Amino acid sequence: MAKTVGIIEIWWKGVQYECVTGSTIKLPGYKNNTQVTGSTVQRYQSFAAGEVKATPVLKKGMKLSAFTADDEGELQVRCDTGQSFVMPDAFILDNPTLSDQGGKAPVTWNAGLFQEIVSW
Description:
It holds the Pfam family Tail_tube. There is one protein chain. The chain has one domain (8-118): Elongation Factor Tu (Ef-tu), domain 3. The chain has no helices and ten strands. The protein has strands at residues 8-12, 15-17, 24-26, 29-37, 40-48, 50-54, 72-79, 83-92, 107-111, 115-118. The strands form two sheets. Strands 1, 2, 3, 6, 7, 8, 9 and 10 form an eight-stranded antiparallel beta sheet that branches. A two-stranded antiparallel sheet has the order 4-5. The chain starts with 7 loop residues before the first strand and ends with a strand.
């Protein structure tokens, strides 16, 4: 039986953060756009930013300000199936909103570069 992704872990600027279930990653790259011309359809490409959505939990002693939209840094995403993605130019889109139900603080990053590493 093949194993599939069950856990995604993140490192933001070299610090590991535990996240709740539901994290997603979309790699940066070219995407197709539709152009209707008369009664035919054409396509053209444009570049789309990569996107990582994760919900770190804020524990006692941690700073919510670690996730401000002030600057960029390296984001690493690791799957429990061996895939790792390193995004050296990641940045947070907006400051997160902290909830009181377990200290959840959803964060969305965008990036333009990535490297994928697969370990067996």
